[in-house]
Design goal:
about 15% strand; alpha/beta; 7-stranded parallel sheet; TIM Barrel; about 45% helix
């Protein structure tokens, strides 16, 4: 299983520190998912050799509108193993869900965002994984936590109805926010998401990385690939 993390300068811990803690918690690897405006500087191979777990280069595109996000896709897709788009509005959620070049739609329920049957179905059609983020449930209290649980349950039901692919994350921004997969499994069961599904969602990050690395090594991803033309067929 893998966790997707934010490292320095966006997070509060280095990639190496996050990897060490993830290894202690039983993870097989981490995906570094810093946003495009605060990318981390690290040597993935060196950290992997030092810590003994896989370190996957990723990026989370955060843009004001789909047009801006589209430009980022063209820039980052050819060189990035795991590419995500930060949702949070209906427009951004829909844009990310319909892009073959996108691996993961993150934070679909954040801010003014919403996930509906149409977006879930589009994500399923294009093979875009939708993030089930446990971060709000882990870090909010009172009414905010209650709303976060309701949003997660809605998200999960829509993904199940559409048979859409998904990933799970606690979205840690420091090694102190990392949680063992057993703890996340228990939390999922508490709020109505099966424990096996939580572990499947954590494993999905690694599956995405393995698939994209294989395609790159076999020249399936060529320089200059355009957003929306990323072939997902094996």
């Amino acid at each position: 299983m893998y966790e997707a993390v934010h490292a320095v300068p966006e997070g509060e811990a280095t990639v190496s520190r996050l990897a060490v803690t993830a290894r202690e918690y039983g993870y097989d690897g981490i995906v570094v998912r810093n946003h495009t405006d605060r990318l981390a500087e690290y040597d993935a191979e060196a950290v992997a050799e030092e810590t003994g777990i896989d370190v996957v280069d990723g990026v989370e595109i955060r843009a004001e509108d789909p047009q801006s996000a589209s430009g980022h896709l063209g820039n980052y897709r050819p060189e990035t193993t795991v590419l995500a788009v930060h949702g949070g509005t209906v427009a951004m959620n829909r844009f990310a869900a319909e892009q073959d070049a996108v691996d993961v739609l993150t934070h679909p329920m954040a801010g003014e965002g919403d996930l509906n049957h149409v977006i879930a179905a589009v994500a399923a059609e294009h093979g875009v994984h939708v993030e089930v983020s446990l971060a709000p449930v882990l870090r909010e209290e009172g009414g905010s936590r209650v709303r976060a649980i309701a949003d997660l349950r809605k998200c999960w039901e829509l993904l199940q109805d559409a048979d859409a692919p998904f990933v799970v994350s606690a979205d840690p921004r420091s090694h102190l926010q990392l949680r063992a997969h057993r703890e996340l499994r228990a939390l999922g069961e508490e709020i109505g998401i099966p424990g096996d599904a939580i572990e499947d969602g954590l494993a999905a990050w690694g599956t995405i990385a393995e698939r994209n690395r294989a395609r790159r090594s076999e020249a399936f991803i060529e320089p200059g690939v355009k957003a929306g033309r990323y072939d997902r067929e094996s």
